[in-house]
Amino acid sequence: MTEFFKGITPLRYDPSSTDLAFRHYNPDEIVMGKRMEEHLRFAVAYWHSFAWPGGDPFGGETFERPWFGNTMDLARMKADVAFEMFDLLNVPFFCWHDADIRPEGDSFAESLRNFEEIIDYLGAKMDGAKTKLLWGTANMFSHRRFMSGAATNPDPDVFAWSAATVKACMDATHKLDGQNYVLWGGREGYETLLNTDMKRERQNAGRFLQMAVEYKHKIGFKGAILVEPKPQEPSKHQYDYDVATVYGFLKDYGLEDEVQMNIEQGHAILAGHSFEHELALASSLGIFGSIDMNRNDYQSGWDTDQFPNNTPEVALAYYEVIKAGGFTTGGTNFDAKLRRQSLDAQDLIAAHAGAMDICARGFKAAVAMTEDGTLEAMRQDRYAGWDTSDAKAMLASDFSSIAERVASTGIDPAPRSGKQEILENIVNRFV
Length: 431
Fold this sequence. Notes:
Elements: E1 30-31, E2 34-35, H1 36-40, E3 42-45, H2 46-51, H3 72-89, E4 93-97, H4 98-101, H5 108-127, E5 132-137, H6 156-175, E6 180-183, E7 189-190, H7 198-219, E8 224-227, E9 237-238, H8 243-252, E10 259-264, H9 265-270, H10 275-285, E11 288-292, H11 311-323, E12 332-334, H12 345-372, H13 374-382, H14 389-395, H15 399-409, H16 420-430
Parallel strand pairs: 3-4, 3-12, 4-5, 5-6, 6-8, 8-10, 10-11, 11-12
Antiparallel strand pairs: 1-2, 7-9
Helix pairs in contact: 3-5, 5-6, 6-7, 10-11, 11-12
C-alpha cells in the first residue's frame, strides 16, 4: 500500500452520508433488468488522474505527486496508486495511453521495453483486482516528433514510428483483455494550407486506419476499434472534426462496418454540437461505441475537461445511449481532470464520486423518460404521415409524378407545431 490515499476508506452507497460516499450511484441497483454498474460501465482515465501535472495554457505544474518522474520504479508506484483508487471507487474499468503508464526512453526500443514491462506489471495487478481495461490507446500528440501529426505527418519516418507505436499498444490492449482500442488523432490536422497536401494526408490517415483494422483481425482482437472525433484543438483544422466528418472518412476508406465512435461531451461542444446530437447521429449511422464523459466551461474556448455536474445534460446523453441499445464493449470513461487548485488526494476521489453520482442521476432520469414513452410517442406522431402508403409510394416515384399528384389533389399543407416547449417541460419532469 502507498501513503497517497491514507485515511480514505472505500466508498459505499449511502444516500444520507455527509462524507465521501455515493448518494445516487448504487452499483447493485437493478435498472431495466441489469445492475446499474453493468449499464454505466465506469472507467477512470489514467492520464488525467495520474499523469497530468496540473498545467494550463498560462501556467505549469501545480500538482506534486510522489510518482512523478521518468523511471520504472515511479511508473510502478503510479500503478500502485491507480489501483488503490480503483478499489476505493469500486470502478469496473480504466483506460490508458502508452505515455501515461511508462517512462519515455532514449529510443523506440527502450520505450517499448519500458512499456512491455509495465504492461506485465499492470496485468499482475489486474489478476487480483476487479478493475479491467476498457481501452488502450497511443499518445501520438505530446512529443515534438508529432508536431505535424502522426499518420498525417509529411515525414514517412514519423508515420512508421506511429504505426509501430499503435501495434505495440494494440498488442498490449489485447494482452490485458481490453474491451476496445481507441485511435485519437490529436494532431491529425493542419495549421495552414500553405504547407499542406491535404489529399495526401487524408489518404495516409485512411491507410493507417485500414492497417489498424487489418492488425486487429490478424491478432484476433475481439474488441471494437474506436475513433474519437475532436475539432480544431490543437490543430486548427482537424480531419476528425465530428461524428459526421469521421463517418464520411470511414466511408471513403471502406471502414464504416469496422470502426465505431468514442464520443466526448467536451469535443461535441467544441464542434458546435450538443453531446446528444453526436450520440444520436452515431447511433443512426450504426457507429456508436463508447463515451468520454466530461464537460467544458461554456465561457472558455478550449477543452477544459471538467468533471460532469449537470444532471439534465447527462440525462439527455444517456437517453440517446439507451435508444442506441446501451453499451456493448463501450462504457463511461471520465476523461476529466481536477482543477489545478484542487491539490489533495481527497479531491481526486471526490471528483470521481460526484461524477459517478451525476451519471447515475442522469441515467435513472433517462430510464424514466424511456419507460414513460411520452417523448417517443410524440416523435412518432410527428412523423406518422411517412408511414402511410401514399408517402411510401411518393418516395419510390419521381419529381414528375409527385408534381402531378400535388396539382391534381390541391395539396396545401398546414404547418404543425413542433411542440418544443412542451417536450422540454416533459424532460423537466424527470430531471
